[in-house]
Amino acid sequence: MVRLPLERHSVTKMNRIRLLVFNPALPVLDYKVPAHLSVEPGSLVLAPLGPRQVLGIVWEADRLPGDEVPEAKLRPILEVLPVAPLAAPLRRLIEWCADYYVAPMNAVARMALGSMAALRGGGTTTEYRLSGHEPKRLTPQRAAAMDALHGEQATIRELAAIAGVSEAVLRGMANTGILEPVTVDLDRPYPRARADFAVPDLSAEQRQAADRFIAAVDAEEFRPFLLDGVTGSGKTECYFEAVAEAIRRKCQVLVLLPEIALTENFLRRFEARFGTPPVLWHSSLKASERRRAWRAIASGEAQVVVGARSALFLPYARLGLLVVDEAHEVSFKQDDGVRYNARDVAVIRARFEKVPVILASATPALESLEMAEAGVYERVVLPDRFGGAQLPEIAVLDLRKEPPERGRWLAPRLVGEMRERLERGEQSLLFLNRRGYAPLTLCRHCGYRFQCPNCSAWLVEHRLSRRLSCHHCGHEVPVPDECPECHTGDCLVACGPGAERIADEVKELLPEARTALVTSDTLNSPERISEFVAAAEQGLIDVIIGTQLVTKGYHFPELTLVGVVDADLGLEGGDLRAGERTYQQIAQVAGRAGRGEKPGEVLIQTRHPEAAVIAALAAGDRDAFYAAEAEGRREAGAPPFGRWAAIIVSSEDEAEAREASRAIGGARPNLPDVLVLGPAPAPLALLRGRYRYRLLINARRSAQLQDVIRQWLASLSFPQGVRVSVDIDPYSFV
Ligand SMILES: [Zn+2]
Ligand SMILES: [Zn+2]
């Protein structure tokens, strides 16, 4: 009896191990384990590599092919890090993603790990904040820094970024006592969410849906749901009941949201339901918050995690439920590094973890609807708005028949409707999915156009910041006084509207209206978002002008008119999903209208009222839209009926990129179920200083697409400066 655990121990004691290593050139290496250390698959270890140390994950050798190293040449690992090993379901997910997305396995695994500091253990770190001590004399730099740092607490480096000053300035302020150090405990617990803090009254339909989710959480098995509910139907309240059940069962929950800018409203609802905010995970967390969150996730202490797509790969200790809210959103698709779709990977993770997953949307992706149709996903429908509110009336405004005045963008009828709302004390919302003032600036005298030096794109004028900026690479220049080409003064013309320009037009047409411009330029912090929401709810805003940031999540009872400034914008560009995306965006923004007791109205400005997507929106006929969209995709062999992949070749050297793309094109596979288009210059032929060529692959569903691409590319080699990346199920075709 006593010997049993010992025996088991000796059987599983690993002496020779294979590591997945975080080194691009040497991803798999074998080591031995010295007698005083013990590891298991998934353990995180430090190992010697040449004169340096590398981080590695112990992996099952039979699942990770590598070169056999003779026993005598094996070096011992140095250290086992004090964190729980990555569990088998997560290791399977990493393998699956690497295989499916044709990505290096260590690049996928990297997304599961926190910082080295988090892996090293808990303990404390030092942050700084204003001490309240104000010296009599302050340099202007220090005074400005003090203004910027009000209410902030972070490391010196993070504070320097917030205040826009050097770290040396802040160290000086710490030395003179203006900033004081604060010791932060990295493993301090989060407040506990309470499953029964504020149980809501659900409608009969919501109750039914919630009960199905709760049963799935209790069953602890893989069950994918498509929660398909019109805007305002109370989807969140429904899946909150499943979250509550997981909390009762002491399981962890991950809720993925498409954009962290949209979480403010969600967080308030979460806190109202569960008594405390959830644990957040996104790219702009402070280093100490990131370490704390990662450790709480890995230990199982974090109950509910709300995050952007990167939260999907974290090492949850006891995952019990996954939710993808606004599951149709394009931002779940990552377009650099490992190119994955978080919506799809969430379903795969749920399968490996044997837990339910809920994809929630008012406008599901066609792929998700087809999975429901095929019986793979269980479809849960909420057809009505909560509390008896009616869906808004949608009308089309044909800009060819009712053009705006010269130099303006809003048609008289739309302006008239806005004026009526203003007189009645109700709110209007104008939607234009384009930041800045104007998308193109040119010289009236010589025709010069401002273009980004790093990208094939025009510079967008931002009048608020008086800069011309590239929305692809971030390149910025001040708006010049004269044309850089012909040096004529006062000759620059703004072409086309951005949201800033529409806001200006509203101020001219309705000078008494109080307006709010809602873009990622103006609402760039949680504080600004809260201020906006509070002002809109208190009726301090008459007209909201916004980009896709305003299309979802918000619930303003007095908002009764939505104007879509340019419905045709999204249809340009030849993107495969342009129709679907336009439908989703307009349906979502339309869903902001009439959520209270007063009915809502939507006016869609378009030059193509006959386009299928506009006609379906006007008729309120979602099924007709999806049927037409499905038919078009079936004919084109597009997803979900066929498959697409892209190979993007880039280099800072134009000729090198072209040559490499030709070499790939020349080695194309000759298969009956795989069609290769290109190589051709990508629509964004220059991006961040790199020249880009693209091949598109259209395959039947029968094709082993990933294997074909792997074998195809494996036979080729490229110069150092050439980057070849594969995009499976691409969203962007630029
Ligand atoms: Zn000029
Ligand atoms: Zn650029």
Produce a short descriptive summary.
The protein is of the alpha/beta class and 734 residues long. It has 21 helices and 29 strands. Helix 2 packs antiparallel against helix 12.
Description:
With 734 residues, this protein is α/β, with parallel strands linked by helices. The protein is 31% helix and 23% strand. The chain is built from 21 helices and 29 strands. The protein has a 7-stranded parallel beta sheet, with helices on both faces. Strands 15-25-24-16-23-22 form a 6-stranded parallel beta sheet, with helices on both faces. Helix 2 (88-100) runs antiparallel to helix 12 and helix 17 packs parallel to helix 18. The chain binds zinc ion (2 copies). One zinc ion binds next to loops.
How are the SSEs ordered, and which strands pair?
Elements: H1 3-12, E1 16-21, E2 28-32, E3 44-49, E4 52-59, E5 79-80, H2 88-100, H3 105-110, H4 116-120, E6 124-130, H5 140-148, H6 156-163, H7 167-175, E7 179-185, H8 204-219, E8 223-229, H9 235-248, E9 252-256, H10 263-274, E10 279-281, H11 287-299, E11 304-307, E12 319-324, H12 342-353, E13 356-361, H13 366-373, E14 378-382, E15 393-398, H14 412-424, E16 427-431, E17 440-443, E18 460-462, E19 467-469, E20 476-478, E21 492-495, H15 499-509, E22 515-518, H16 526-537, E23 543-546, E24 559-564, H17 578-590, E25 601-606, H18 612-619, H19 622-636, E26 642-651, H20 654-666, E27 674-687, E28 690-700, H21 705-714, E29 723-728
Helix pairs in contact: 2-12, 6-7, 8-9, 17-18, 18-19
Bound molecules: zinc ion (2 copies).
Residues 452, 454-455, 457, 470, 472-473, 475 line the site of one zinc ion.
